[in-house]
Amino acid sequence: MVAPIILSVRQAPNDRDEDSLLAEATGLAAAISLEVVSALAANIRQPKPATLFSETVLKDINDLADAENAGLIIIDGNLTPVQQRNLERRWHAKVIDRTGLILEIFGARAQTAEGKLQVELAALQYQRSRLVRSWTHLERQRGGLGFVGGPGESQLEIDRRLIDTRIDRIRKDLEQVRRTRGLHRKARAKVPYPVVALVGYTNAGKSTLFNRLSGASVRAEDLLFATLDPTMRAIDLAPDLRVIMSDTVGFVSNLPTSLVEAFRATLEEVTAADWIIHVRDAAHADTDAQRQDVESVLKDLGIEADEDTRIIEVLNKSDQLDPEDVGSMLAATRRRKSADTRDQVLALSAITGEGTGDLTALIRRLERAKNKVRYCRIPQGQGDIVNWLYQHGDILERRDEAEEIELTISMTDTDIARFESRFPELALAVEKPHTQPAE
User: Fold this and answer.
1) pTM as predicted
2) Cα–Cα dist 421/415, whole Å
3) Which of 100, 150, 151, 427 could form a disulfide with 140 if both were Cys (CB 3.0 to 4.6 A apart)?
4) Reading across the β-sheet that carries 345-347, which strands appear in turn?
5) What secondary structure does DSSP assign to 225-291, as a single string?
6) What is the dihedral of CA 10, 18, 15, 345, to 10 degrees?
7) CA proximity to 246, closest of 208, 209, 195, 204
């Protein structure tokens, strides 16, 4: 097993905690079972175009790599292709940057065909940018018999063409995935149940919360990117509230743009959700910076976190904090929100279950707030239909006549559609039916 050295890059201005940065970088390596022999931080004031680091840092890492016999050096930052090549030559070791490490993790974790396609697309885009003229086999190869045309393709150009061909193929396959997901969403809309998507920084506790609410057994570990492939499940949050809950891949700081683009088909489930639960690790030293990273990705998807009324912000791991600190965080979060969303903030512990009932009650209240008033006449003797309406709506008025029961009901769009699908012979009128006066 390769034992790497990790060098965490911290460029000013940067308000992230240095120890947290090192811990996250080490956690990323541990996610693919790499045992780090040494982890150091490097503060960079003036990045060097050729190597990123100063001569002092280059020498120190070279000495450390020799002493530890390290064959791999992980730079927890982004390198240009030239910088990566120059560092490998200087340190006589394999060098990968943060993007390359995340791609390695995703490649090891992807289970579904869609997930593997998305990771391969991002990896090919990354690899293509790193095709540099540094190999001896790149001399020009003559095409055909050489009588016409001139020099053929270089190996570099062949590699690029092959990669581009594969990228085009994957994009077409993912477009089919996107269309299929769209059809699935339309099918769910006919059922229909509200869709609740869990988003958040990696290791914030999304899968633990998913398991707590659904009774499922999605992989939930103290491990970065424990969940990669999305999981969706219909669950009963309350006797009268069934939802489809989606657990998505965790976000991370400096998430490669290619990965965001590659996972756009999956992340469309977030953009189409009725409710988006942003799960935060409230006990983490960099919880505010992590929040900003998640909100940055959401913004790329067209979602403004502080203004979108679908977002519920959850301060998870509150059991690890003093009650006073939890109260202060809740107050600060609500002040940041718009007037329409500041009530959609709460604290809970997914691991103990404390506060999860408040989340269920909030979702139920928000769903009820979407209610619309409808009117219905049901023949006497159809008690099953009347009972269904009592269970799924709020009966505002009831009038019993000799042959019919006239109901005024407050219901969600979801339950209106379910009623019309289940009882197509009856109508939910928008306007109150005209009642004949009694003779």
Assistant:
1) 0.74
2) 10
3) 151
4) 231-238, 241-247, 195-200, 275-281, 311-316, 345-347
5) T---S-EEEEEEEETTEEEEEEE-PPB-TT--HHHHHHTHHHHHHHHT-SEEEEEEETTSTTHHHHH
6) 130
7) 195
Name the residue type at position 356: T
Most confident stretch, 106-110, 183-187, 325-329? 325-329
409 three-class SS: strand
Amino acid at position 396, single letter = L
The mean predicted confidence, pLDDT, of the chain is 83
Which token pair is 16?
A: 């992230």
Distance CA 247, CA 227 (A): 8
The Cα 238–Cα 339 span in angstroms is: 27
Among the listed residues 401, 398, 394, 387, the one whose alpha carbon sits nearest the alpha carbon of residue 364? 394
CA pair distance 285, 14, nearest whole angstrom: 14
pLDDT at 316 over 90: yes
- Answer for the pair 412, 371: CB distance below 8 angstroms, yes or no: yes
Query: Which residues is 285 bridged to in the sheet?
Result: none
CA torsion, ordered 135, 140, 142, 146, to nearest 10 deg = -160
CA dist., res. 166 & res. 184, Å (int) = 27
Asked whether the beta carbons of 213 and 245 are under 8 A apart, the reply is yes
